[in-house]
Structures are given as structure tokens and as C-alpha cells.
Amino acid sequence: MKNATLCLLALLVTLLGTSCSSSSPSKGRVVTSKGTRITSVRTTAYTHSESDHIQYGARTAVGSNLKYGNVRSAAADWSVYPVGTIFQIEGTPYIYQVDDYGSALVGTNTIDIYQPTRAHMNAWGVRNVNIRVLRWGSRSKSLAIMKDRTKYDHVRRMVQRMQRS
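-> C-alpha cells emitted (165 positions)
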């Protein structure tokens, strides 16, 4: 029974990764039973005390608190990595969840990793990393969250990109 459950889970992860392939970056993507591996993903870092984030405080675009524990917050272009996408950066023990977006991320295939302080943010800098998407997020949930925010250009661009694909 345990083997059957594992096989079913592996199949589900593979199907989830494949079903979102049109929204995920094409370079270096390999779907396996352990998720979708994407190589050389550009990452940057942000913190809640940056001038362009101060108005939101330590809150995400979904309205939750920014996370920095075993599960950590990440911001991305939701037309590439929909809200709720869960991934791991290879070589780290942490799990990241896309629960935020940023105007500078739209169209860049960059993931912004939340850091609790400016020192942590600066120490991260810009890194190209390999990630493993463990579960793709929801395009419909992303669109539902953004529907009332289309007065902002970056949100409009994400929505348009999602509706085209």
C-alpha cells in the first residue's frame, strides 16, 4: 500500500509540473518524480523595511505575514510562478512559498527571496540557483487575488500574460 501511495504521489507531482509547463521557464526544466527541476534561476532578495515595501509592512500580497522559518516567503511574477508555488533551492533545507509579487519581477523570471533584515538581504545579493518546484501554485487563485488590483501596471501585465497563455 505504501508503494502504491508513493507511486500515486509521484504521478501527481509529475502531472502538476507538466500541466503548468506553459507558465514555467523553459530553460533547464526537467520534470521528475521529485518535482520540476529548473536550473539557473535568477534570485534576488528583499526585506520588509525597503522603501518600496514599507507601505505593506511585513505583509505579503496575499495578506499573510512574511515568513522566515522552515517555510519562507518568496515573491515572483505570478504568470510564471503562480501564487502558492512551493519550491526548494537545491543545497538548502528551506522550503519557499510564492505568496508575494513585485513590480520589478514581472517578465524577468526572477524570484525574490524574503530576508528578515537588510544585512541578510545584502548578503544574499543576486544568485543563480537551481530550484525544485515541489508543487505548482494556482493560476485561478492568482487571477482572483489580482482582479481588483489591475489599476497597477505590473498587476495588469501579469494578468494579461496569464490570459494569453
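The helical segments are 2-19, 118-124, 139-146, 153-164.
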